[in-house]
Queue: 2 jobs
Job 1
Amino acid sequence: MIKIGSGVLTSPDRSKLDDSIIEQIAHQVSTLKKSGCEIILVSSGAIAAGIKELNLKKIPEDILHKQAAAAIGQSHLIGKYERHFKKEELKVAQILLTHDDFSSRVRYLNAKNTILTVLSYGVIPIINENDTVAVDEIKFGDNDTLSAMVTNLIEADLLIILSDVKGLYTVDPKINSSAELIPIVKKITSEIEAIAGESKSLTGVGGMVTKIQAAKRVSLTGIPAVIVDGKAKGVIEAIMKGEDMGTLFIPEKDKLNSKKYWIAYTLKSNGKIRVDDGAKSVLISSGKSLLSSGVVDIEGKFESGDMVSCIDTNNKEFARGLINYSSMELKKIKGKHSSKIEDILGYKIADEVIHRDNLVIL
Ligand code: GLU
């Protein structure tokens, strides 16, 4: 999976798409493909291309004009890819997704099957957020997140984030000249996240924070990630040869299975349930389901089947899971023994409030 940011794709003054970069990427992807790799691209650049088409001076501030620019620019973007890949005798497929497509298990699996089928034709899928319809509630927000979610969706072997920086530095290199590139991150600790938080001077939508979060998302499912300078010549091939470039993130050994990953890191949380200390320790240490007797309180409005966060009595989130009861129902049965559920509600959906198969301890 190769994610290409707007900063890489555009000319130095950001006013238009840089054909020479797209040409270089197409050439490198084609070489890799000949060596037997399957490649998927997540590409930004729709809004940048739209701005150029509309002769605008800068990115519009409001969402409607941004969406219009994306709609106008996306066809140019894909047109350029199509042209440059054609020279390499490769075809491309445009796939536009929103976060909402990942919230339903059926659409999630459909997206996966389509991408895999496109690959089976030997065609290069080029994915972007469907900016035209994506308003805040259904947005990935940035293509770093989108690329990580697609990496996990199709269980790719590697995520390469082509960026306008060389990788993760010890401090922000634009502020401090003693900054050193970190070649390998074995674990994404809070210190690593804090370093990324300081590097705010990056361009593009995401910045270093969303890149580290993307690396973290894929590391949870056992997939490595590399953040690297996307404008460097031959960078994709160099990485695949194992050359020392950018920052490599080593994945976690204890990986989550794909359903649990989907529950905890793909779905958006619809509410919180506060759990007492006894139930919390049983959930963490013995892998049991959450029962109504352990629920102290409920925040937010949710329906049966929604993803909710479990918080402890200190308000710290420690688990996420698919809830069997709505917030209305849960308010009535919280703190009560499971054997009382039917008496209270007049029916019983399940003994468990969250079944352990649908529960992820964070
Ligand atoms: N989807 C946006 C575009 O194509 C870019 C989002 C991002 O760069 O993170 O213009």
Note: The first strand starts at residue 2 and ends at 4.
Job 2
Amino acid sequence: MKKILVIGSTGQIGSELTAELRARYGGDNVVAGYILGAEPKGELAAGGPSAVADVTNGEQLAAIVKEHNIDAIYNLAALLSVVAEQKPRLAWKIGIDGLWNVLEVARENNCAVFTPSSIGSFGPNTPHELTPQDTIQRPRTIYGVSKVTTELLSDYYHTKYGVDTRSVRFPGLISYVTPPGGGTTDYAVDIFYAAVRGEKFICPIAEGTRMDMMYMPDALRAAIELMEADPAKLIHRNGFNVTAMSFPPEKIYAEIKKRVPDFEIEYQVDPLKQAIAESWPDSLDDTAAREEWGWRPNFGIGAMTRDMLEKLSAKLLNK
Ligand code: SER
């Protein structure tokens, strides 16, 4: 990879992934793609080139790829699970019509493509405990339907046209930088904001509901290491199960309370989020990622909680 385009560079993953890619490959070699209304600011704007890159506009993507001589695209444009249920047509337009544009541009210009899949690609009849790499994927959310389609279409472009497509199924991602918007796993980020602000946390997910999670530094490494992996070793491509931890709300609450003793939680379960959460795995088996490209997470629940509280306190309280 010499020249990279990040589509969705100001979003939950993109804002941090763009900075990490620039640190590794040089600021000038990573173009921050954004849509109008979500312009890069601060470091993201200053650290390298940027361009309007609307995933629904194939001609615009092709022009950027040609102008900057792009050879790898990180395609991070998506709506998260809850908001996608409210806007299913838009979720499909961005997730799948957009992916089609990206894959076509990649085919014509010989680019590698990374597009995240998710634990949302699984459904109620998927085995929930140690969910295997290859298993039943019959999700009932439009988010999940678009993620399964993402995996299939990306595999199709690889086998039919030789496009170097790669993907991971991200679990819930936890970060103190850019908050997620409209996902089912957002509570695992929101709970830290409540703890640091000294507020009671109103939890939309019921006790006992386990989901896979990952701290953002591990997620960024997963994406980059998969894209750098030796293709000869990849049996799978789109997408690999990856996980770092799996917990229900009461476990992350207890972990935070060790360090914030006055912290309180109250459960007000959101029926839509709860139904989605219950349809997703309780814990993923990421053996294939470990064996095929050496995946290993660095952060478990304890290390993640310590780092989150420290960094989020610095961000919210020292302004
Ligand atoms: N974090 C995502 C969501 O909750 C799952 O991939 O929608």
Note: The CA atoms of residues 211 and 282 lie 5 Å apart.
